[in-house]
Design a protein that fits this description.
This protein is α/β, with parallel strands linked by helices and 437 residues long. It has 17 helices and ten strands. It has helices at residues 36-41, 66-71, 86-91, 96-102, 159-162, 181-192, 220-224, 226-234, 255-264, 278-284, 291-303, 325-335, 350-363, 368-375, 383-400, 406-410, 428-434; strands at 118-122, 128-130, 140-142, 145-146, 174-178, 207-210, 241-246, 266-272, 308-311, 341-342. The longest helix has 18 residues, at 383-400. The chain is globular.
Length: 437
């Protein structure tokens, strides 16, 4: 049996690095009364219980804006290792997910390439993670893996590895495979999910977004099948609201289970295509499938009767914003059968900028000065530029008759503008007013 789907607790004697002894639980900052082994072995719903690791701020939820950070006490910042002094972090005891990741055993793999990432089995306590931020139109996230092999140069989810006291550069080199996914998700849905969300006034179910901080169909999925295990569990439920976002055509493998989910719940799928230029896509997204393969996936999913749209996020200034390029992605998306289209401008968190600027100097040196001017002090492009992009996106949507994303148009839309996590560009004006873009 695969170590990823067994219900035994992994042997913690296999250690990647030393973790100092500590009396705290595995998740001391967000304590829970059940261990992963107990959860996998006891799936009966417990009425009225909502306190769990998922109810706390997690790495699966998009990060706070700089304006939000200024209002928070730094001691309670969700990114624990953002302290200015690295030596202080090095001396700090590993706790929470960092301690758990440090003792995660290697995951078996058949891949022999020397360029493959390292895989580890991560015995998490929950698969369904709460996102209480009003900036995004969903209540829950599912990220089957931590890290992503696609190695997109602009990826803002790199910050999630910092929760584990790892550098953002390790995001595509150390992939953590979440253990016991199906059993944990069954428990999570029974215990925490609401079919009448507070945000909708009790009229609609909570929304679950799959792939907010990792690509659920990265190469690891072929071996470990965590995404498939989660989908199989969701297919047993009725009345859910679910969305999936990916850059991979591997999603077509799961068409049959996706159709079963659609028959009983609301399901939408987003395929991210930032450019149609194959060579450029290979530079920006080194290990992601080619744009034409993603478009073929859009067509195949649509022909299967599934609701599919295209995300052109992020739009990268000076690189993917050339006149006609974004419009070409929109036209190709429509031809492939996409029902909606959206895009948002690049957002550079510190952990992302640390990787993106060296890449920029190597591949696009003429843009470095402009980027330093725009992104040197914060992660956002100028408001005027973002407004022009918003107008371009609105025109594309009008030209091709694209609709809004289904779950966004039904719920409180306060979008986020980044990579495959970008939300409807039509709502960017709202974001400007609230300081989230």
């Amino acid at each position: 049996m695969s170590p990823v789907h067994s219900i035994t607790t992994p042997d913690s004697s296999t250690q990647r690095r030393h973790a100092s002894p500590t009396p705290e639980t595995l998740f001391p900052e967000c304590p829970d009364d059940l261990s992963p082994k107990q959860v996998a072995g006891n799936l009966a719903p417990v009425a009225g219980q909502h306190g769990s690791i998922s109810d706390c701020t997690t790495a699966d939820c998009p990060p706070a804006s700089p304006a939000d950070d200024a209002r928070q006490n730094p001691a309670h910042s969700p990114v624990r290792n953002s302290a200015a002094n690295p030596s202080e972090r090095a001396r700090a005891r590993l706790v929470g997910i960092a301690r758990l990741a440090a003792t995660s055993p290697p995951a078996e793999t058949k891949r022999k390439s020397l360029e493959r990432p390292e895989y580890f089995v991560l015995p998490v306590k929950s698969i369904l993670n709460r996102c209480d931020s009003q900036r995004v139109p969903f209540e829950w996230t599912i990220n089957p893996y931590r890290g992503c092999e696609f190695a997109c140069k602009y990826c803002y989810a790199r910050y999630t590895h910092e929760y584990m006291e790892l550098d953002g550069a390790e995001f595509e080199k150390k992939i953590y495979v979440k253990k016991d996914a199906a059993a944990l998700l069954a428990w999570d849905v029974a215990r925490k999910y609401s079919y009448s969300s507070e945000a909708s006034g009790g009229t609609r179910p909570d929304h679950i977004a799959i792939g907010t901080a990792t690509d659920p169909y990265q190469p690891a999925e072929r071996e470990y099948g965590v995404t498939r295990a989660c989908l199989e569990e969701l297919a047993k439920k009725e009345g859910l609201s679910v969305s999936i976002i990916t850059k991979s055509d591997q999603i077509v493998r799961d068409i049959e289970v996706l159709k079963r989910i659609r028959e009983r719940s609301n399901l939408s799928i987003d395929i991210t295509i930032t450019t149609l230029r194959t060579r450029l896509a290979r530079i920006l997204e080194p290990r992601a499938p080619r744009p034409d393969l993603r478009l073929a996936a859009v067509k195949q999913l649509t022909q299967a009767g599934l609701a599919v749209g295209v995300s052109a996020s992020p739009l990268i200034p000076g690189i993917t914003d050339r006149e006609g390029d974004l419009e070409a992605v929109g036209a190709a998306a429509r031809e492939a059968g996409a029902q909606w289209f959206f895009s948002g401008v690049l957002f550079l968190m510190p952990s992302s900028a640390k990787q993106f600027f060296p890449f920029l100097r190597a591949k696009f040196p003429r843009l470095v000065q402009q980027y330093e001017k725009w992104f040197g002090r914060n992660g956002y492009a100028p408001e005027e530029y973002r407004r022009k992009v918003e107008e371009r996106v609105a025109k594309i949507r009008q030209t091709y008759g694209f609709r809004s994303r289904p779950f966004v148009e039904k719920k409180h839309p306060t979008p986020c503008s980044q990579m495959s996590l970008g939300w409807d560009a039509a709502a960017l004006q709202q974001m400007d007013q609230r300081g989230f873009t």
